Amino acid sequence: MLKGKKGVIFGVANRHSLAWHIAKEAYAHGAELILGVANERFREKVAPLAAEVGAPEPVICDVTSDESILSTFHVIKDRMPELDFMVHAIAFANRQDLEGRFIDTDRYGYHVAQDVSAFSLAAMSREAEKMMKPGSSILTLTYIGSVRAVPNYNVMGVAKAALESSVRYLATDLGSEGIRVNALSAGPIKTLSSSGVKGLRDKLDQQAVKNPLHRNITGEDVGKSAVFLLSDYSSGVTGEVLYVDNGYHSCATWA
User: Is residue 248 flagged as an active site residue?
Assistant: First the structure.
């Protein structure tokens, strides 16, 4: 489904990362990849994974710095002059803001969550656009906490709401260039990022009982759906949030 396509996937931290599951599926479907990480520590950890999918040494991108984003995309352009897709699997909030009450979030914590989790998509898409042609695709990852008040998701839910709104505006901006922008909303799954959310185990237990398929989401589920959104098989899909949560979002009973 991605034979001959080239893309960059940001947000791989380890083998449990949703970005890694997307990278594995993309590679299995013929894509040529570059992986992006947050800092040198993650580059050392992810370098062996990059080798598994035929990718060079991961690029480092500090998404809170415009200069870092610019320099990262210069490196990407040297390695891969044209991009067919970009995956943005980046989110962060201070741990103390993922417990207790949302109302107690301070100004700095709110800014950090929005900057890293939402604004970075717009900033990175602006650079990716310069390397993309009609038919290209941008994909980000979100969660149902953007539209429902999920316990302990707090400021991250607000940031994901901004992210999903950004998807719609970016889809409008880039549609004239033939570039599609979508989000994939995965059900709860244990990753390095989600482990910072208090009560994750309870959410996983509830999901397995309450969703229509009566099981938890897997990384493979996410990877397969991502390949669809990155491929020409979703050529008419943009500005969309695709739920990959075993149907949980459609149920009347929430947890």
Answer: no
Render each residue's pLDDT in the chain as its tens digit; 255 residues.
999 999 999 999 999 999 999 999 999 999 999 999 999 999 999 999 999 999 999 999 999 999 999 999 999 999 999 999 999 999 999 999 998 999 999 999 999 999 999 999 999 999 999 999 999 999 999 999 999 998 899 999 999 999 999 999 999 999 999 999 999 999 888 665 545 555 556 666 676 777 888 888 999 999 999 999 999 999 999 999 999 999 988 885 554
Residue in 153, 169, 243, 248 annotated catalytic:
153
CATH class in words for 6-243: alpha beta
Burial of 99 (0-12, 13-18, 19+ CB in 10 A): middle
Q: Could you give the CA distance from residue 116 to residue 131 in angstroms, rounded to a whole number?
A: 22
**Distance (Å, whole) CA 209 – CA 43:** 38
Rounded Cα distance, 219 and 25, in Å:
10
Ordered by start, the domain boundaries in the chain are: 6-243
Task: Give the full edge-to-edge strand order of the sheet including 59-60.
Answer: 59-60, 32-37, 6-10, 83-88, 132-142, 180-186, 241-244
27 noted as active-site residue? no
Count the neighbouring beta carbons within 10 Å of the beta carbon of residue 201. Answer: 11
The neighbouring-strand residues paired with 132 are 83
Active-site residue (options: 27, 143, 243, 248): 143
Distance, C-alpha 208 to centroid of its chain: 23
Q: Residue 40 burial (CB < 10 Å; 0-12/13-18/19+)? A: exposed
